[in-house]
Write a structure and sequence with these properties.
- By secondary structure, the protein is α/β, with parallel strands linked by helices.
- It is 37% helix and 21% strand.
- It has ten helices and ten strands.
- It has helices spanning 15-23, 44-50, 66-76, 96-100, 134-137, 149-155, 166-177, 203-217, 220-232, 236-248; strands at residues 2-8, 31-37, 57-60, 81-84, 90-91, 108-116, 122-125, 145-148, 180-192, 256-257.
- Strand 6 (108-116) and strand 7 (122-125) form a beta hairpin.
- The two termini are 26 Å apart.
């Protein structure tokens, strides 16, 4: 069973497409759907209640931000795996969960994400492999990452003192503890640009939070090296080559892909 958690606050214009993408899954009998509404003062809850007979749990009450809502969802979840699909985003197609289910045999399993901008143009987030260099500057996409619930019991919930990067912080904690993942090369979700993490006004908050997290998981020497590399080299092919070379010398730590023999 997969617990899909959608959090929303004042998302009356976008929440319906998210809900429909979940309740119309071909494997709906394998899904527990939980919607967390942060006491919206628009018609968000009205839209949610329109589908209440197809939603497993609805919680509508004030919260202390995104990660407070995430944690409420985790505590309410009864599934073996958890997927966070925020209001406005959607599963890629009606067969997404059916395709993903056979591959859920690792603590953390993720797939590709389609990024859709305001003009409807698409691009794709994908990973060849995961190492601590790549995680230094970007996170796994939570809308296509399936996390075994028991891991939250072992590692703890999301840090509610963070406003933007707590999911990235949690992933770093996971990889530094277990270092294993599985990658399924299919698109699992569509992420629509425009949320809090993609707004310009969030840049200062993000920068401050990122520095705090990096100081926890990376030495000052490694931070300096990685920042210099990222400043000097922008080409993805060159960066991939440098990552491989540095891994041979034990500088870059490559994590274990469970899907490879």
């Amino acid at each position: 069973m997969i617990s899909i958690i959608t959090i929303a606050k004042n998302e009356e214009k976008t929440i319906e497409r998210t809900i429909l993408s979940v309740i119309n899954q071909s494997a709906k009998d394998k899904i527990e759907y939980i919607v967390i509404d942060g006491a919206s003062d628009d018609n968000t809850l009205k839209v949610i209640n329109k589908y209440k007979n197809k939603i497993s749990k609805i919680i509508s009450e004030p919260d202390n931000g995104i990660y407070s809502a995430f944690n409420k969802g985790i505590n309410a979840a009864g599934g073996d795996y958890i997927l966070f699909l925020n209001a406005g985003d959607e599963l890629f197609c009606s067969g997404t969960i059916e395709k993903i289910l056979p591959g859920l045999d690792c603590g953390l399993v993720f797939a590709d994400v389609i990024i859709r901008d305001k003009k409807g143009r698409d691009s794709t987030i994908y990973y060849d492999y995961i190492d601590d260099f790549e995680l230094f500057y970007k996170s796994l996409p939570h809308m296509s990452t399936f996390i075994k619930k028991e891991l939250f019991l072992k590692l703890g919930l999301y840090d509610e003192t963070k406003k933007i990067v707590s999911d990235w912080q949690w992933f770093l904690k996971y990889f530094n503890t277990y270092g294993k993942y599985k990658y399924i090369k299919i698109p699992a979700a569509i992420f629509y640009l425009g949320g809090i993490s993609t707004r310009k006004e969030a840049d200062k908050i993000r920068k401050k939070e990122r520095e705090a997290v990096r100081n926890t998981f990376y030495s000052k020497e490694k931070q300096l090296l990685y920042k210099i590399i990222l400043k000097l080299f922008k080409n993805k092919t060159v960066l991939k080559f440098l990552r491989r070379i540095l891994s041979l010398f034990g500088v870059v730590k490559i994590y274990e892909n469970c899907s490879k023999p």
